Amino acid sequence: MHGSRAFHGTWNDTKCDLAKPYICKISSGILTQCLPFWMPYGRYCYGVYDGQQGFSWPDSQHYCQSIKAELVSIHSRAEVEFIRNLNYTNNHNIWIGLTRDNNCEFGWGWTDRTSLGFLNWAQGEPNAAFHPGEVAEENCVEMYADGRWNDNNCLNKRGFVCRHRQCKDHSLIHMHSTYNPSTR
After folding, report:
1. Per-residue pLDDT tens for 148-161?
2. Pairwise CA distance, residues 11 & 56, whole Å
3. Which of 7, 130, 161, 177 has its CA 20 to 30 A from that of 35?
4. Do the beta carbons of residue 151 and residue 162 sit within 8 Å?
5. Start and end of every C-type lectin domain (predicted)?
């Protein structure tokens, strides 16, 4: 990294054997963890169910809540891409935590009550369609394999993605706090 006034903060490749100043990062000593087989991204951990058998939106939400998670709320294009890469088998479209909310100004809300600042609807969606022979309107949202969203009947069977905040592993705090680099 350059330190000169003109190039301050920019990067450049150089020979590895040159003596240069350096910067180290020291962690807080608190490690974060995800549930087994879940993937971390930002402050959250994500788990995708994409098996052969699909589940309704309410059953998917119930499963997520039973493990102290929520159907995912999505807040950026990067998060969409991350989730798309987790759904590697593409057996189903996947339910996300967006649902029709009559108390909400925009008509849609995340189940975890985070803000609705990012939308990724497929063309022509949401259409709130009512299909002959079906009891319910399209009040729940699924994500297609391409990352776009579609409102659909909540009873349809889909895969789903849950999200929980990363947990702090307090069992490691004591070990890290007693380490003193000056004794080495």
Report:
1. 999 999 999 999 99
2. 49
3. 177
4. no
5. 41-163
